[in-house]
Design brief:
- It is a single chain.
- The protein is an alpha/beta fold.
- 38% of the residues lie in helices and 12% in strands.
- The chain contains five helices and four strands, in the order E-H-E-H-H-E-H-E-H.
- A four-stranded parallel β-sheet has the order 2-1-3-4, sandwiched between helices.
- Helix 1 crosses helix 5.
- It is globular, with a radius of gyration of 16 Å.
- The two termini are 25 Å apart.
Length: 182
């Protein structure tokens, strides 16, 4: 999973968050990096948050984030992010507390996969089950989606995605952990 150390933060169990888009090279690694950066600045008394990202498709497995994603992160002071794209695994649905989709199509794919896994596991005990939701539920403006900047709008699309990731991450920290993040 992610890069935050449980020993660095409060004594409670870490909260595990998985960001998901289609290919895991633009939106989900951006959300991953933003939330991880915010988590690193929390006081030691705050719960530890472990962040990772993945894609519903295996198109870019092992690839680094899109250069435009990395340029956008660097422009905003996030310089230490390193990630290799991966595909969502069935274990993710029991390892993570939250699985957050960047858009409704990926949300539908994740909910379908979660139901398939639950159907296969019937009668095998009660493993932890991730809350699968739209990341944009935490943006304060209803069900917002992060449009895929890969194919359009140039750098502007990446800037919009970054702003949304910041706003949604702040909303998540406030709503789910009761922490105001600046």
């Amino acid at each position: 999973m992610g890069d935050s150390s449980e020993a660095e933060k409060g004594a409670t169990q870490p909260v595990a968050v998985l960001m998901v888009c289609l290919g895991n090279i633009c939106r989900s690694p951006m959300g991953h990096a933003v939330m991880q950066d915010m988590e690193s600045k929390l006081p030691n008394s705050a719960p530890s948050v472990i962040v990772d990202s993945a894609g519903t498709g295996g198109y870019h497995i092992g690839s680094p984030p899109d250069p435009r994603t990395m340029d956008t992160l660097r422009r905003h002071g996030i310089n230490n992010f390193d990630h290799g794209a991966r595909e969502v695994h069935s274990d993710d649905f029991s390892c993570f507390d939250y699985i957050m989709a960047m858009d409704s199509e990926n949300l539908d794919d994740l909910l379908y996969e979660q139901q398939r896994i639950k159907a296969k596991a019937r009668g095998k005990g009660g493993a932890k089950e991730a809350k699968v939701m739209l990341f944009g539920d935490f943006g304060g403006r209803g069900k917002e989606e992060i449009d895929d900047p890969y194919y359009g709008r140039g750098d502007k699309g990446f800037d919009v995605a970054y702003e949304q990731c910041v706003r949604f991450s702040k909303g998540w920290f406030k709503q789910e952990l009761g922490i105001d993040v600046e």
